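[09:14] KT: can someone run the structure on this one? pasting the chain below
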Amino acid sequence: MAEGIWLRFLSGPDIDGLGLTRPELVAAVEDAIREHGEGRTSFEPRVHLRPDNGGIGHFNVLRGHLDRLGEHGVSGVKVVGDFVPNYQVGLPSELAMATLFDPTTGVPLAVLDATMITAARTGAMTAVGAKHLARRDSRVLGHVGSRGTAWWNVTMLDDLFDLDEIRATSRRPESREAFGAELAAVLDTPVRVVATAEEVFDGADILVEASRLTEPEPLLRTAAVKPGAFVVPYGTISAVELDLLDVMDKVVVDDWREARSGRFGSLRRHVDTGRLSEQSLYAELGEIVAGRKPGREDDAERNLLWHRGLSLLDVAVAHLILRKAEAADVGTMLRFH
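[09:31] RB: done, structure tokens below
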């Protein structure tokens, strides 16, 4: 390499061509969650940038560091836009960019299209949570939402469980039908597309609420949560009833500081009203993955995981991608300094 400081730029097509598998993505995320549970990470809760754009969207800024990656660990920053109306102009609702840095010098290592990273690490978090908190004999998955994270949620959960049926819906008929067809093309498990959240969640063993609401609306009713169910509500805007936590045996979050921060999140009202507090919280998922607290202990437990999205997972997946890109000499080298 010529003199100077160079970094690797990895575009979306570069990353798509690396052949990343769902198991290796889940493994990278689970390792990061474990490291968080062991207290060997540094990160700050996300902050929001809200431009004067009529409320059509905002930016999330996430920052984190993992000790175990590379010789000295790796630090990273991700900026992700959250623009629900983007489908009207043919764009994903979440577009993201990540940067990785050497924590001993501040030298930038890479710039990556983090759109897939955002979606895949979210699905992997759902899967890791299910691995520790859902019943092993779960048979019916109910999923509300068809945005980018939805495909990863469903396919990664299908990898883990011997499902009999996957039910899916979203607000727009064309979106949910396309999502169902996309899933049916790659999965052996029967996929049923339905019109309402009530149909999706009725009697389901795993209930995932990943809607894209602009105003609170109870799509996931408390009465739909049967004994033994595992619930994952993580939409930006609340789509659950206020008494949902009253029936839960274990409420788990990705990080309590993250859960308390900002003005968004499915359980924001529950935190603000004291229904979810440090006292009522069972654990952070990292504590369970690290073996410091047990996960599911009873087939009748109703368990819930609320994950807002940890920057540590973005760093872990971005670093996995960077290592594979370096090995394959993929990407564009850019002169920085």
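[09:33] KT: thanks! The chain has ten helices and 15 strands.
[09:34] RB: yep, looked fine to me
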